[in-house]
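Ticket 4471: requesting a sanity check on a complex prediction with iron/sulfur cluster. Repro inputs:
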Amino acid sequence: MHVLFVEVDTERSWAVASIGPGFLAAYLRQHGHTVSFFRYSVDHSEADVVDVIQKTGAELLGLSLTTRQWLRTKSLVATVRQTVDLPVIVGGLHPTFSADEVLAAEGFDYACLGEGEMAMLDVINALEAGEPVENIDNIQTVVGEKPKLRPPFTPLDNMPFAARDVLGEHRGVVHMTTQRGCPFPCTYCAARMYNQLYKENDAEYGRRRTVRNVMDELHALNDAGDLAYAIFLDDTFTIHHPWVKEFCDVYGRELGKPFSLHARVETVNEKMLHMLSKAGCDQITYGVESGSPRIRYEVMRRPVKNQRFIDVFRWTQEAGIRVTANFMLGLPEETPEDLQMTVDLATELDIMDFGYFVFYPYPGTQLFQTALAKGYIPDDYQGRPANHRESILQLPTLTNADIGHAYDQLTALRRRLYMDRLGFDPTAEQVAGAADHVADLARVG
Ligand code: B12
Ligand code: SF4
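Returned structure tokens:
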């Protein structure tokens, strides 16, 4: 069967498409099916997607969805189904935790809950054989009827390497995942909910590839001339120290190309940071999220002291690794004083750059449930876009103006860091030009 994956963009700037379809495409090809890919950018029209479906002869349309992609996808699929008759399957975080909402919308046939490779293959095989799709594990077809979950794919080393042609990567910057699942209990996080979902089904979602298997994929990319810089997207790359040590030894010796990763400050130490640096790591992004210990400990369930961020950021810089960080604003129970503590901590920490996001309650998460129970979520939330610039919540402790004020302070701080780094206040074109230049340098080595 020929499957078309469409990536629904909501921004102009994402360098990479959803990672899930990279694995799904590789797995389906391994089992004899063909796959094509189309990136539905913000400049494309719905008619463009219809055109691609007709030109590729697609027999099944697959979409990977975060909550942010949902509203644009809903409109797209309704239009597509009015014109062409092909089944539609969706998966990813949003369909997993909002399957009823998705299936109630026009044109959606199958919602995949949790891991998708084996489930999607079963759907395709059933469609080809003219057999019913109603009783396939992980696949929900009817509103309110939750499917059983099959055990997660194991060992991950047996999964084919991600199909790069569906990731939309550029200039030798490759996106890698070495693990699935995160065991930490952060209440705002959708990613961890896979662990929770599988636990409720008596299964363990957390798995990791061996270092050798990861290296084989990187060598294949390198041999093809496609590896200049590796971005490890794992939720917590540094969680298991023996794995990280082995990786640093082997990667540093065999490839040594620059790479970046995400980490929690509790999972690194000075020795590990020096090892990572020696292997080629030149940037780490840490989640700080809030400068208020009360919000971190009581609302987010991230029990870590401010001093730990200060120490780890210093150690990271001392090891020769650039530090970036992420912050969140506008959580339930947060006050203007808590917001100010976040701005203060961001100012105090030695960061090269940072991201800052207004909190959005993702379906399935613990904070979504809390916000719902407390009446913070407006009735019409499903019709509102999921963005990280303005809060959709009605919070008794914060106004949108309070959040906006802290947001503006962080914007000003970020601009100052930018000016310190570059020595001038850049225009948008200069920022884009600088990014291209860095990518070119990375490509030549
Ligand atoms: C890499 C990444 C990105 C990349 C790529 C996006 C992507 N969706 O892969 C980029 C940088 C573009 C990105 C951006 C954003 N991201 Co992001 N991102 C991730 C991250 C860290 C890893 C995803 C990954 O590689 N997983 C590995 C693959 C193998 O797993 P998977 O994606 O779950 O796919 C499997 C199944 O879900 C399923 N499946 C997935 N798609 C499909 C499709 C079909 C048809 C089927 C059958 C099955 C299926 O099968 C796959 C293979 O088993 C996740 C955290 C996480 N661990 O999931 C956050 C995460 C997906 N991102 C998130 C968010 C919030 C964002 C942003 C809004 C960030 C921002 N603040 O602006 C944007 C929105 C992007 C968008 N297009 O809407 C949230 C989404 C929450 C939600 N409910 O929507 C997550 C879960 C982080 C979190 N902690 O909450 N992100
Ligand atoms: S450590 Fe990161 S991925 Fe894991 S639960 Fe917390 S926020 Fe989510």
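Notes from triage: Residues 3 and 60 are 5 Å apart (CA to CA). Leaving this open until the requester confirms.
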